[in-house]
Every structure is written in C-alpha cells, then in structure tokens.
Amino acid sequence: MTTETLPSQPQPSILEKKLLPGVTTGVLIVVVVMIASFVLHMINIDSIGYANEYYTAAVEAMLKSWSNFFFIAAEPGGSVTVDKPPLGLWIEAIFAYFLGVSGFSVTLPNILAGVFGIGILYHLIKKYMGELAGVTAAFVMAITPVFIATNRNNTMDGMLVFFLLLAAWAFIKATEEGKLRWVLLGAFIVGLGFNIKMLQAFLPLPAFYALYFFGSKEGWFKKILNLGIATVLLVAVSLSWAVVVDLVPAENRPYIGSSDNNTVMGLIFGHNGVSRLGGGNDGGGNAPPSGNQPGQPSNAETPPQQNPGQGQQGQFQGPPPVALEACSGQTQGASCSFTTQNGNTINGSCVTPPNQTALACAPQGMNPQNGQAPNGQPNSRPNGQNGGTPFSQETGAPGALRFFTSPLSKQMSWLLPFALISVVLALFGSKVKLPIESGVHKALILWGGWLLTCVVFFSMISGIFHAYYAIMLAPALGGMVSVGFAQLYAWGKRSAWALTGLLFMVAVTLGFQLFAVTQYNEFAWWMLGSGILLGLGTMLLSMSRRAAYAVIFSAALVIPAYWSVMTVTNSSNNNLPTAYEGQNQNSQDGFLASPAQNQNDGNRGGDRNVNTELLAYLQANTQDMEYLMAVPSSQQGAQYVIETGRPVLYMGGFGGQDEVVTVDDLKEMVANGELRYILYGGDRGNKQEIADWLNTSCAMVYDYMGVEAAQGQTGPRDQNMNLYSCR
C-alpha cells in the first residue's frame, strides 16, 4: 500500500468554486443541509409533549426564584436539586423565560445547538481534509438518528456536543498557532461542558490533548507545561459551581439530588461517576423506576369519577394471544415467531412476561421480565434490578459487539463499519513525522481518537448508560467517515485500487445495515435500492469518476437517512430519547417494553399522568399552603409541577432514594401549615419510617385503585399509591 504524502486538502474543484466572496459551493451545500436538518428536527415536534418532565419541571421551578435558578431546584419549593450540573438547564430556563415553559421551549436550545453544530463540524473537518470531507461530515452527522432524537429533547446531551465541537475548534487553533491562549480556551470550554453533563464532557479530552501535544510545533517541554496549566484551569472551571454550592450550609440550600452525602462532589464521583462505570443502580438515572409509575389516585373524600380511558399509566401491557400461542408447549428461551394484526412477522424467543405465568414470544431485543434475560444475557431487567446491567433494554449488555447488535445498533452505528475502516486507512495517509504535519494524521488523532475512546468506553461500561449518550459519537463518526471517503477519492486520482477499497467499505457497511434492520423487523424491498446504487456507481466509473464515487458512497447513506426520518415521524419516548424502534415498537409487539417505553400515548407529556380530579381536589384544599402535596419522588410529582407551577415536595428526590426529608421534617411542615397531603405507597423499603407515620397519624382520602376510603381510615391498605391527609 502506498505511503506517499497526499495533498493537504484533497478537494474536488466543484465544491471549492466560489459563488460569492467567501461563499463556496461547499458552504452553500452545508447551509442547505443545516436548513434541512432544522426542518427535520421540527417535524412532528408536538409529539415530544413536555419532553423529559423531570427537567421541564426543574425549568418551571428555576423561574420561580434566583435561588432555585442558581441551585437548579427540581421543584418550586426548592426541596432538592436536579442530579445534573447547572449550565444546560440555565440555558433552557432562559429560553423558557422568553417563550414560556413548554416541551418546545426547553428543547429549542438543543435543536439549535445541533443545527449549528453541523456547520462547526464542516469547518473543522475542512481544515485538515478539504471541502469534500467537510460536506460529507456535515451530512453524515445530520442523518445520524440518535443525533436527531436527542436534540429533540431537553436532556442537554446535544448541547454538550455543541460545546465540545467549540472546544475542538480551540484545540485546532492551539495546534496550528502554538499559543497558550488557545489551549486555555479549549480547556475552559471543556470545563463549561463539564457543567452541562459532568464527567461525560471529558470523553474526547484525550483526543484534544493528543492533537495539541503531537501536532503543535512548540517544544515538548513547553507543550507539557501548557497542558498542565490548561488542566488546572479545566479543573477550576469544572468544579467552580460545585465548590460554591458545597460551601453553602446544607440548611440554606436544597438537598443535592442523587448524591450519597448531600454534596455536589458526592454527586460527581458517585451517581454521575462510578455508577456510570459499573457501580450498579443507585436509584438515579433519567428513567422512571420500574414498578408502579406515577400514581393516579382517583377517589376523594367527595369521590370524583375516573376519566374514561385514563387508566393506570406505566403498567405493562399483556402479550397478544398470537404471542402466547407461538410459545404453547415450548420451553424458556426457545425460538419463536408470530404475525401481528398489521401483517408483520415477529421473530424472537419464548420468555415469561411481567405478571404472567405462561410463556410468550418476545421480539428480538425486547427486555424480558421475572429474572429472564434476552439472548442469554445475565439478568438485564430495567434499571438493572437484581444485579443486572442498568437500562439494558436500551443499550444491551457490555461487550465488543454492543454497538452492532440490538437494541443499541439503531442509534448511530449505521456507518460505524465505514468509520472504523477509515481509521485504518488514515494511518497510511502520509508518512508519520513528529510533530505531526499531515492533515490526515491530525484528523485521525482528533476524530479517530474521539471515536475510539467513546466506542471502547461505552462498549465496556456496565453502569448507568442510556442509549441517547451515543450522540457523543456523532461528530467523530461524521469526521472519520468523511476522512475515509475523501482519502479514497484523492487516492483514486492516481490509483485504480482506491475504487476497490471504496466498494469494499460500502459493501461491508451495507451488509451490516441490512443485518441491523432485520433486528428491528424493518426490512423492506426498497432497501435493496442501496445495492442498486452500489452497482450503478460502479458502471458510472467509465463515464465520470466523480459521479461514480458519489453514487457508490450514497448507497451507504440511504438507510440511516430513512431511519432518521422515521425517528421524527414516529412518536418516540419522551423521557428517554431514542432512534426509531422499527416494527418492534408496534403495540402488538411491545408487551415486554419497560413502563417508560409504554408511556407515550401521543398526548402532552404533562397530561398523561395527571389525574384532573385529584388535582382539582388538591388545588381547592391547599390554597393556604406552600406545598400542593408531598410525593415519594419526581416520578410522581414532576407532571403536577408543570401543570400547576406549585411546589411539590420530592421526599426521595429523582428516584425515591434520597433522604431529602425525614419524618420529623414532615411533622414540622404539617404543624406549620406548609403541607397537608402526602401521596405514598408501593414498595418504599428505605422509607419505612414515613409509612409507619402515615399508618398511625394520617387519614387516607384517595386510594390508587379508585375505591373510596373509609371515613377516618388510617394507614396503607395496600401497596399502591394512596393520598393521605395529615393534620
């Protein structure tokens, strides 16, 4: 294989042709891609409802006072903070201040960050690899499904990616100009990223540092010194908010949500640190805990009627009869298949569904219950109960093939084979010199380093890992795909084997894509069009090399583009953004989905769990009180905060595990007239003291099942959510 040095910017002339001063054809194409991406983000935007209600309720709370804003209180009463740092939520709150609190207003900054990030990526890739690579990278990121899904949510990961792209720009400037101020700027921006999603912001940091260290022409000692100074600044900026908050006495601020010791430092290194690596389930995360979901008590002292069809949200659906029939006489884990009412054939294995004794056919990639795990994986129930991998229904089990198998493969892996092969090709792009001089090797260090770090990290961790974290790979994926394609195009000017290399890489990528779509029962005849484009491109080679390369490469873009469109046209999970689920998302197929997956009914997120009769009762009887009610966690209260804007005491923080208040605190609040009603019940083992107090001192006024409470009855009658009046 040749190792001769390539031109530093292998550009096709048509893309660098200037249409206006400073505006090339490539720039125009990227602007069109950005506009198209914005339109794609906005399609069916009403389906997001209130997006992630936990964060939306926090924005509502933050707009109530400067204290709530600074400490990022999770509810207006300021009882507990969100389990994240402040910067992303501050930005969302600013948008909501001007536009009003809604799913759209808190999501808009993430959408804009994604769209403008496309332009930044184009600029950064163009720096080392030319116009063709820049345009390619911009388009690839724009059609990455998890990129679209995550930006259409208020989870802030898209905003983090935007900040990291800005940091990459600063480190490129530092590498090219060899000036400390650019290294410091890059470290400062990464520190800001830390204040969006904490340690997640550090994932591309090794690539940033390596680019500067191996690419800058300064002396080695000076570069080490500069990186040392930058690291000090990075730590200072990253921990600035945390230190200030932890210096405030605990009684003068909210409880630090999801921390073990009521400190931000504990949150950084605990729930947002070791728990992400493999610390198991600590009660945190961004998904509702399994079991009974936000309570909908439906009976009062003056019993209201349940809304027709309101039901108990978050409960598991039962398996369809055809799924039961498919496993009649079969054994646990046996292969099976059945046909849904819409004619789709579902392949899977026999498992025991929730609250069932008979075996049923579960679609591939869905999460079995009652301790049974899919595909032979050890116990991968939601949130990792009983020692399993947390949220494995989203991300599967740790391992080298995690990104290539269901359920994670649909997020961003469609072009991952092409990108990984491009990493190998880039090694031969030029002769290796130190410091690095060739653009292709600088691109390899930056984008290849970013990509490989994230792939290895997310493939191996067994802690809290949500599917939408895969957006972290989107810029690097676009970068390495563009490097490989631009490099092959440049080689093709002098060597016929480059076309063979492109055909091989596209064929391998297409093979994986067709394998992936079958994992989601989505294969359709039109997908064969990718193969047709591959053949057509080969035939065009004798007429136009430029057209041939474009058509061949476009064959690999068809399916991910389709998946991105389907991601926005099909309502996805509001709380946990994810790429299109394929045919497995049909109601006939999803009976093994987690409660969080089954919650989306197309209604506003704030309406789907609010019992209007209960809400009216509470509003009428708490006008002279600070708190509307107290609830075990944000899962039962966030939607009521959004609906009313009133304080709702999250006694257990996000997931119910925090010690936000004690029984004595509750007694004092009741005595002071701040609180009267407490929604409680279910399996709350570590809050037994609260249950005992309710049992002896408070009267039930609503019960979860819609049965009128006996006059003056005290204590929990069952394990469901009940409303108690405490005086």
Structural account:
By secondary structure, the chain is mainly α. The chain has a domain at 13-42 and 83-244 and 400-564. The chain is built from 27 helices and ten strands. The strands form four sheets. The protein has a three-stranded antiparallel sheet with strand order 3-4-5. Strands 8-10-9 form a three-stranded antiparallel sheet, with helices on one face. A hairpin with a 5-residue loop joins strand 3 and strand 4. Helix 6 runs parallel beside helix 18 (474-491) and helix 20 (529-540) packs antiparallel against helix 21. It is globular. Mean pLDDT is 83; it is low at 1-12, 280-317, 365-387, 586-607 and 705-719.
pLDDT averaged residue by residue: 83
- Quote the beta fraction: 5-15%
The secondary structure category is mainly alpha
Rg: 27 Å
Largest sheet: 3 strands, antiparallel
In DSSP terms (H or I, runs of 4 or more residues), the helix count works out at 27
Low-confidence stretches: 1-12, 280-317, 365-387, 586-607, 705-719
Query: Distance between termini?
Result: 82 Å
Using the alpha-carbon principal axes, give the shape: globular
Helix content: 40-55%
Strand order of the largest sheet: 3-4-5
Give a quick precis of the structure.
The chain has 727 residues and is mainly alpha-helical. Helix content is 49%, strand content 6%. The chain starts with 12 loop residues before the first helix and ends with a strand.
Topology of this protein?
Blueprint: H1 13-16, E1 18-20, E2 23-24, H2 25-42, H3 53-62, H4 66-71, H5 87-99, H6 103-142, H7 145-151, H8 157-177, H9 180-197, H10 205-215, H11 220-247, H12 264-277, H13 321-326, E3 335-339, E4 345-351, E5 360-363, H14 392-395, H15 409-412, H16 416-427, H17 439-460, H18 474-491, H19 497-519, H20 529-540, H21 545-554, H22 558-569, H23 595-598, H24 612-621, E6 629-631, H25 634-644, E7 648-650, H26 663-671, E8 677-680, H27 688-697, E9 699-703, E10 722-725
Parallel strand pairs: 6-7
Antiparallel strand pairs: 1-2, 3-4, 4-5, 8-10, 9-10
Helix pairs in contact: 2-6, 3-5, 3-25, 5-6, 6-7, 6-8, 6-17, 6-18, 7-22, 8-9, 8-10, 9-11, 10-17, 16-17, 16-18, 16-19, 17-18, 18-19, 19-20, 20-21
